[in-house]
Amino acid sequence: DVLINCAGKAIPPESVQEITLEVWNEIFSINVGSIFLMTKIVIPLLRKSSHPVIVNIASTAGITPRPGWSAYGASKASVVNFSLTMAEELKPYGIKVYCIAPGRTATELRKILAPDEDPKTIMQPEEVAGIIRFLISGRGDCLQGQTIIVKGN
């Protein structure tokens, strides 16, 4: 009934002059390619569901410029556009597609990227999970086909 695409890879800030094509491609493969493949694979199953939902996790980095984060930001911008496109493409099958763009969230990846940041001062994963629960409950239908920005603290 539900697919939640929550893949993410980032590296510490690196300018476009420094990043290699290999790293760029790896970030896109994980952040975008995995969402494409999972969506493609699960569509036949979701078409059989009475309340099919896809939730893609992007990032505010995909909608605002972040110097040093070109690969991550561009990949998450791709997730945003893919989500909006899938929302329209899958509408005839009754499949709802949502895209959440969280801001700074206290995840394991965030600890690596911002080791000096106190995780208690930023949004907690449970807050994002609450939004996902709301969307998959069927009460978030009016948010379908939009990018939902969740910024927390």
Could you outline the blueprint of secondary structure elements for this entry?
Elements: E1 2-5, H1 21-46, E2 53-57, H2 70-89, E3 96-102, H3 108-113, H4 125-136, E4 147-150
Can you put this structure into words, describing what you see?
By secondary structure, the chain is of the alpha/beta class. The protein is built from 4 helices and 4 strands; from the N terminus they run βαβαβααβ. It has helices at residues 21-46, 70-89, 108-113, 125-136; strands spanning 2-5, 53-57, 96-102, 147-150. Strands 1-2-3-4 form a 4-stranded parallel β-sheet, sandwiched between helices. Helix 1 runs parallel beside helix 2 (70-89). The protein starts with a strand and ends with a strand.
Key attributes of the depicted protein:
4-stranded parallel sheet, 4 strands, 153 residues, alpha/beta
Question: What's this entry about, in short?
Answer:
The protein is an alpha/beta fold.
Strand content: 5-15%
Distance between the termini: 32 Å
| Radius of gyration from the alpha-carbon trace, in angstroms | 16 Å
Roughly what percent helix?
40-55%
Structural class by helix and strand composition: alpha/beta
In total, the number of strands is: 4
The mean pLDDT is 92
* Low-pLDDT sequence parts: none
Run of helices and strands: EHEHEHHE
